[in-house]
Design brief:
The protein has 441 residues and is of the alpha+beta class. 34% of the residues lie in helices and 23% in strands. The chain folds into 2 domains: 277 residues, Zn peptidases (Aminopeptidase, 3-Layer(aba) Sandwich), CATH 3.40.630.10; 154 residues, Alpha-Beta Plaits. The protein is elongated. The termini are close together. The structure holds zinc ion (ZN). Zinc ion binds next to helix 4. Keywords: Cobalt, Hydrolase, Metal-binding, Zinc.
Length: 441
């Protein structure tokens, strides 16, 4: 059997079993797997049960399966068929979902997996249990029509993507698990996404000097020195405000000055001030101790930023650039020159390397051709958010993102197109044949 004949056969097989990925997605969606880092409540944090379903399916396909806890009671599940490392391919998906949010805003049961007019509704179907189901369906179709791949083929079903990708990071600590290529099945509207920005969470701590607010006039209008007046305070809240203004200017400067990536919108290099905490005294956790007394001139401001950089840059370069900016900003002020702000990277251990898979990487063209052959659009574009593909790149694999159509990920009435789940399974199966090759004999 040649590659083309194998593809024809596997596409027929997925078509014959077209209900399989849809029913599997529904089965997974009916088990709520809300990431407990966001919301913990009885009956909603059931990642292990959903992973049991995945593990059972993978075992039925004669995959060697592993189940390893990343956090207590939160296991990753991976399955693989043996094969060459050079042509190895993994399909990655995360089993955790974000909370339902405002239940009243939903017109369907968020965990009911109802289908209306070709749309499968529910939390975490689109993002991204449909992608996992499509990956397993691709494997099942390959197995059921007797196609054996030359390269190792794996399914990675991970926990905790929504809170920073700690499931995938943990899985890839085993170097034998790292494939040469990975398709992350996040929803992409059927588009092929070979690149995504890098993301850093960075904390900047600015110190001032405590004083009594009653003497603030002396900070603003310095008085003749008398023994009954305390030293002027330095207000960390006001320093933070100046710093935020400067960061906003830097962000716009980056937007104008840094070359845009051809597959990403201009100005993707954003620096979002997400959390600002100001108060007095610094605690062992690095945060202000007193945040309830405005009569104190505060001496601590802690600012947390979500900083994105283009796939054309690298993390070390961007970190150095931001640190240099902080140094120059501080150098303009006599107090800050003596008391420089402290910059800490990997806040919450979060760090997503960027990736920029070349457009001539075979899998890009393979998926494009399969989509076209199915009569579907096959646009190549960039992922503007970040996903687990970052960690595969960091581990040495070549990632790209391709998954089903739908809408309202993280919102009410999230849905995924039933037809596109089947399409995605077809594309995965055909791409696996082309990328991994057929086993001789
Ligand atoms: Zn997702």
């Amino acid at each position: 059997m040649d590659v083309q004949a194998a593809i024809t056969r596997v596409l027929d097989e997925v078509e014959r079993q077209r209900d399989f990925p849809v029913e599997l997605a529904r089965e997974l969606m009916r088990v709520p797997t809300v990431n407990p880092k966001f919301e913990e409540a009885p009956g909603i944090n059931r990642e292990p049960e959903a992973q049991d379903i995945v593990a059972a399916r993978l075992a039925e396909l004669d995959m060697t399966t592993t189940r390893a806890e990343v956090f207590a009671g939160r296991p990753n599940v991976a399955g693989s068929w043996a094969g060459s490392a050079e042509r190895s391919l993994a399909i990655n998906g995360h089993i955790d979902v974000v909370p339902v949010g405002d239940q009243a805003a939903w017109s369907v049961d968020p965990f009911g997996a109802e289908i209306h007019d070709g749309r499968l509704y529910g939390r975490g179907g689109y993002d991204m249990k449909a992608g996992i189901a499509a990956g397993i369906a691709a494997a099942k179709a390959l197995r059921d029509c007797g196609i054996e791949l030359d390269g190792r083929f794996e399914i990675h079903s991970v926990v905790d993507e929504e809170a920073g990708g700690f499931g995938t990071k943990d899985l890839l600590r085993d170097p034998d698990r790292v494939p040469s290529a990975v398709i992350v099945g996040e929803p992409t509207e059927g588009q092929i996404m070979p690149c995504q920005p890098g993301l850093e969470w960075v904390r900047v701590t600015i110190r001032g000097r405590n004083a009594h607010a009653g003497w603030r006039y002396n900070d603003i209008y310095p008085q003749r020195d008398t023994p009954d007046r305390t030293r002027p305070g330095v207000n960390a809240a006001e320093l933070a405000a100046r710093f935020l203004t400067a960061v906003g200017q830097l962000e716009r400067d980056w937007g104008c000055r840094k070359p845009a990536h051809p597959l990403l919108p201009p100005g993707i290099t954003t620096i979002n001030p997400g959390v600002v905490q100001v108060g007095s005294g610094i605690g062992a956790n690095g945060l202000p101790v007193t945040m309830t007394n405005p009569a104190i001139t505060p001496d601590v401001a802690v600012l947390d930023f979500d900083l994105k950089y283009s796939p054309t840059e690298n993390s070390a370069q961007v970190r150095a650039e931001f640190e240099e900016f902080v140094r120059s900003w501080a150098a303009q002020d006599s107090w800050l020159r003596e008391t420089p702000p402290i910059v800490q990277w990997e806040l919450g251990s979060l760090h997503f390397p960027a990736f920029d898979t070349p457009l001539d990487f075979p899998l890009v063209d393979s998926i494009r051709r399969q989509r076209t052959a199915l009569g579907r659009s096959a646009e190549i574009t960039g992922f503007v958010a970040v996903c687990d593909g970052a960690f595969y790149r960091g581990a040495g694999a070549t990632p790209l993102i391709h998954g089903p159509l739908g809408a309202d990920a993280h919102g009410p009435d999230e849905w995924v197109s039933v037809e596109s789940i089947v399409d995605t399974a077809k594309v995965y199966a055909a791409a696996a044949i082309e990328y991994c090759g057929l086993r001789a004999g």
